[in-house]
Amino acid sequence: MAGRFEGRRVVVTGSSRGIGAAIAERMAAEGANIVLTARTLDQHDTLEGSLNATRDRLARYGTTVAIVVADLTDPIDRLRVIPEATEALGGHIEILVNNAAASIQAPLTGFSVKRRNIMFEVNVNAPLDLALAVAPAMVEAGEGWIVNLSSGSAKFWGGPSDPIEPSSPNISAYGASKAALNRISNGLAMELYGTGVRVNTVEPRAAVLSEGAAAILGDRLRPDQIESMEAMVEGTLVLCDCAPDITGRITVSLDNIDEFGLEVRNLDGSSRP
Q1: Residue 178 domain-assigned?
Q2: I want to staple 40 with a disulfide (CB 3.0 to 4.6 A). Which of 3, 16, 135, 227 is the partner?
């Protein structure tokens, strides 16, 4: 496993904490040079984690780790990310992991346009803009990997015969943004098929208790409703070095582990007990 991503140039969005920070750590442990990007350089007002904290944690692996502070809700500010990352790593981006997400949970009735716009900027427009920014160099190189983090909330409610979970009335707007992300990812994969650029999405089968998710969900989840961070990372990384014909997929982390026969490892790449 060591060196699986040796020398690869990677951008991971939303990597100040949670799933993004965990993906970045595992990839650095396996030799990747990484640009971390998010808004929080030093410390969030309420959540633990920051870009500097992630960079400090990754320093032990000895790869290049750079930071681009950017606000993905801003269509102008996010255009800096790929050019600055390319300069920092000394070459075009080979792997893009669009992990950053805005999750505002409230019923659609009374849900403000401002809140909807924030979610669609971060969850749909920003991943597409970043993907379009990395794609030309990937096409020229003949290979590249774009992985977008999605959500099971993109699935439709089946109707009156389906039970309504307590959180269901609050996730429609968020789920709609993730459904849009799935469709855009699938469409971009179709457009780029044959160039060597793979575009896929991955979502957790159960909740991954990142700092943000824990703040939203609190103690409402049973143990069987929680997926380990390590499993989520494993199910994501398989899409970061997959074969050219694995593209356009809307995947689930634990399903990927089963399909590809993966061993779930620690974030430092070591085997788990």
Answers
A1: yes
A2: 16
Integer Rg of the chain from CA:
18
- Whole-number Å distance between alpha carbons of 120 and 102: 8
Residue 26's nearest CA partner among 61, 62, 51, 66 is 61
90 found inside a domain: yes
Whether 137 maps to a domain, the answer reads: yes
Helix (H) or strand (E) holding 85: helix 81-89
Pick the closest to residue 202 from 102, 93, 126, 101 (CA basis): 101
Tell me the C-alpha to C-alpha distance, in Å, between residue 91 and each of 59, 100, 134, 195: 21, 23, 11, 19
Q: In this predicted model, what pLDDT tens digit does every residue of 76-92 receive, in sequence order?
A: 999 999 999 999 999 99
Quick check: is 113 in a domain? Answer: yes
Count of alpha carbons within 13 Å of 37, Cβ hemisphere only?
31
Number of domains making up the chain: 1
CATH number assigned to the domain comprising residue 99: 3.40.50.720
39-73 pLDDT per residue, tens: 989 976 666 889 999 999 999 999 999 999 999 99
Alpha helices (H) along 30-165: 51-58, 81-89, 113-120, 126-141
For 144-179, the pLDDT digits (tens) are: 999 999 999 999 887 888 887 767 778 999 999 999
d(CA 198, CA 179): 19
- Strand partners of residue 198: 145
224 has a pLDDT exceeding 60 = no
Which range of residues forms the domain containing residue 251? 9-154+167-260
Handedness of CA 225, 124, 121, 23 (dihedral sign): positive
